[in-house]
């Protein structure tokens, strides 16, 4: 009985360690994306997204507080907004992806389609 209990405790501890490791990894990804955003020169950001960084952050704050739009474990609210802004600026979710390779095409299409449904 005690061996069984020890095995269950080890499994639970292992599962918790994996969960914490995954959370750390996701947090690190979000931090890396924020660092990349900060590295983009203001003029390049404005040319690509048609807003300056201050307006972008203000827009994200308004969306976060006044809508049901939110980030997920893999896609932050900011990334969703950048994808939408890129789409509006370029007229296609694929043009920007082809040019800089920052976003996954499927993710961009899915964010655009969800946004399109919410405006109906």
Tags for this entry?
mainly alpha, single chain, elongated
What would you note in describing this structure?
The chain is mostly helical and 120 residues long. It folds into 2 domains: 39 residues; 80 residues, no CATH class. It contains 6 helices and no strands. It is elongated, with a radius of gyration of 19 Å. It starts with a helix and ends with a helix. The model has no long low-confidence stretch (mean pLDDT 76).
Short description:
The chain contains six helices and no strands. By secondary structure, it is mainly α.
Number of strands: 0
Average pLDDT taken over every residue = 76
Helix-strand pattern: HHHHHH
Fraction in helix: over 70%
Number of domains: 2
H/I helix tally: 6
Radius of gyration: 19 Å
Major sheet attributes? none
What share of residues are in beta strands?
under 5%
Shape: elongated
Structural class: mainly alpha
Cα separation of the termini: 59 Å
- Contiguous uncertain segments of 5+ residues: none
């Amino acid at each position: 009985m005690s061996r069984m209990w020890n095995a269950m405790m080890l499994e639970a501890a292992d599962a918790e360690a994996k969960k914490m490791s995954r959370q750390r990894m996701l947090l690190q990804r979000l931090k890396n994306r924020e660092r990349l955003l900060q590295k983009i020169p203001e003029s390049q950001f404005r040319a690509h997204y048609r807003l300056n960084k201050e307006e972008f952050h203000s827009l994200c704050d308004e969306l976060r507080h006044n809508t049901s739009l939110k980030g997920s474990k893999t896609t932050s609210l900011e990334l969703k907004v950048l994808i939408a802004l890129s789409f509006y600026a370029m007229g296609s979710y694929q043009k920007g992806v082809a040019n800089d390779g920052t976003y996954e095409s499927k993710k961009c299409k899915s964010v655009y389609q969800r946004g399109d449904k919410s405006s109906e």
